[in-house]
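Review the following:
>
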Amino acid sequence: MPPRAPPLCRPLGRPLGDAELVAGMPLEHGRLPLHLVARALRRAAITAQVTRQPLRRIDRYLLPALLLLDDGRALVLVGNDGEHAEVLVPQSDGGSQRMPLAELEALYSGTAVFAKCRYRPDGRVGDYASALPEHWFFGPLKRLWRSYAEVTAAALVANVLAVASALFAMQVYDRVVPNAAFDTLWILASGVALAIVLDGVLRIMRGHLLNVLGKRLELQLSPLLFSRVLSTRVAAKPASMGAFSTQVREFESVREFFTSSSAALISDLPFVAIFLLIIAVIGGHVVWVPLVACVLMILPGLLTQRLLGHLSRQNLREGAMKNGVLLEAFEHLETVKATRAEGRCLHQWETLTGELAGTAMKTHTLASTLSYSASIVQQLCYVGVVVFGVYRISEGAMTVGGLVACSILASRAIAPLSQAAGILGRWQHTKVAMEGLDQLMSAEQERPQGKRFVHKERLQGHYRLEGVRLAHGDSPPVVDVQALNIRAGERVALLGGNGAGKSTLLRLLSGLLDAQAGRLLLDDVSLTQIDPADRQRGIGYLPQDVALFHGSLRDNLNLENAALGDEELLETLDGVGLGAFVRGHPLGLDMPIQGNASLSGGQR
């Protein structure tokens, strides 16, 4: 039966069918999980929010609303006069019914989905005064500003408590030691010990907050990244799987950079100025020593950014090539052995390993130099504070306790900057990795954002091709069809030699590839205008290379989340001549499948 538009979409003027909304979604037992409802409705340009709300507190201005019932069903509330409710039932094909509000209240689970249409500009003013599109990574990252504010608050209190140890040392040297005030010593020691413990607790809390922030970003962006990978057009698929997998893998390093190391550093940087101000109050001109040290720590990292960027780009490119050689050799291991190509593969591996090792050595040498130089500056800063402090003491402008306090505060002030040298080194790697991810996220998609497709509930199968051409790069056209008319129900065989374009033409007819010239119509509608979900549901396509996935035979037969019963699966297997083989196997439909190597070519 063709899919109907869900009742929640229909009153909002977005008649998108069930199949279009859930196409490509990770269903659970054939049902859409509640936390994915908002994501699915975004395809229909509908903004949705799942919330807990008593039925009588749902304002009529918020309608329509999807109500979840205790028995797992759902109704759409479109009206409420205080005594009766008007609801849409999915099974009624758009019909509404009135029911007592008390009866609905007894069925209602307390969870509702509120939805509204997103504004769609009509394009008469073009891009004038339009908002910039949200970046796929930095947009969600900015929405976590509350978590970053909590991290900053924890850093504020922790750094204020860190001043206690410096003030403790100053009071001990200036007042406790000269007067042998042991009672005061223990009181001060108790206070600073408490401050140190609280400082440690707050830093642990800050680390936990950053871990939670990273987890939230991972759970939000990782599915988005993988869904974009799955919805990429076949024509836009990267040529090298090694480079492609490297791009995806680098998401972890990008996410970690913005939610762990750099976030902790940024939360500490504002307090460098506070520590320097306190040093100026206590030691006067002594503050120039840590101030110069701060400049000397940051300057080398800034001057080497261009070189670090070049090395990072080269490192990632060579790593992607090496990963591609590994995947290619392992995937085609049988061919490698049959053609005695082990030597060629090993030569490629050794060459790339040598180049990658050389680039990595240069990168590590430069990073180590920056780290060691920061350590040297940090130690020289301590020496400089002591030397200048002695002169200030001899002038009577500073006490011994003040000198000790300034040395402690100087170390605390430049500690974040010593980490900044390493962060600047990692920034270039993160920047290059982000460029690769941006390229991946901007690849041509099956369902571009903002594009509205033609919904075809039932495809008849009438193809008409007029001047269709397709070429790969600058090579001659692989497909060049001036006129072809295939009526619904006709059976057509494609005959031709190797490289004649038979498989390419089938990909064109199935919608996996788009023609570069001409018109390809299905039921008198351009194939590119038909909704991808309708195309996938209505057009059956069997590729030359059948791929099996890790799991059981049952899992591979139910890839579409169709949840077919065992009897239906066995009937299907009987139809292709595999029923006896599966029934005779000890595990039957639970037979483990370990990729294509588990079965023969004919069985696949």
The chain has 18 helices and twelve strands. Confidence is low (pLDDT under 50) at residues 1-5. The radius of gyration is 33 Å.
